[in-house]
Amino acid sequence: MLASSYKNLKTMNNGKILKGLELSRTDAERLVAECAEEIGGAGMPRAELMGRIRSVLRLGAEAMRARERTVSVREAAEAALAARQGLRPVTMRDLRYYTRRLCADAALAERPLRAVRAPECRAYLERTYGHSRSAYRKARSVLHTVFAYGYRHEWCDSNPVDRVEVPKVQEQEIRPLSLAEAERLLSVARRPEHAAMRLSLHLMLFCGIRPTEVQRLNPQTDIDRQGRRVLIRPQSSKTGGGRAVPLRAGTHLLPLCIPRNWNRRWQALRRAAGFSHWVPDVLRHTFATYHACTFRNLPALQCEMGHSSTALLRTRYVNTTAIAPRDARRFWATK
To answer: 73-163 in CATH: which number?
Structure first.
């Protein structure tokens, strides 16, 4: 029935229209017939049918070009990193670290983003971060961000990292500092060579403030001595939310300063106190545990630590079985 609509194709320019193409007239007829069938061209006027077929060809070509448009994983990772400039320095440092390691892995970095599948992502994470669940989770998050950025720019059709399982966190027993260990740190901080760190130690140990947050504080504007509180402003907070934390224990906080070379001074103080191994966040664990044992108010502790819920406190920060109630009371009286 459609034959009359296509008969001119056989004789047009004696077949010269197909010159240079590895297609026969029969191939061309078949393609036109298939296209016409797809758009319901039976009985359609010739001019309309030709217009519809041209539209199908044009739209199809555009779709194919869009489908094939992509960049390498390296280019997508660098573009995603550049798009996130302006985040907090610590966050940017982590992003740069994981992006640099991703770009150094030629097996994945040089692959077209659109061609990458979940098994390749999983293999990369296993060979690079299989030794550490924590690092694996962070790297997976960064890799997911790269593909999400690529998806938004139509460099890929999906995010293969969605199909890569997130390893479960293996919870470790929380071990806060004992009262004797806390007193040892405080004793060393009283020495002249470590006195510049007294305020920092107090804020971490008795206020639960993170080391990075301590370093961003301005004691003259962020410590309210009259109201006995320290103000963690949004620009200083790790999570971006401000909070006010009560100043408890030790009132002799002079000199009221956050010294330069903070990390070096903090390591020197720990070494002088006899700590050869230091667990990250142990002072936050210590503060949270002694706070929970003494005041028994998790919602208040949640606000002071800047958490969105009390669930994280129960699973990651508080271990009330690790200390005696008597030591908890003495902790807050320590000078």
So the answer is: 1.10.150
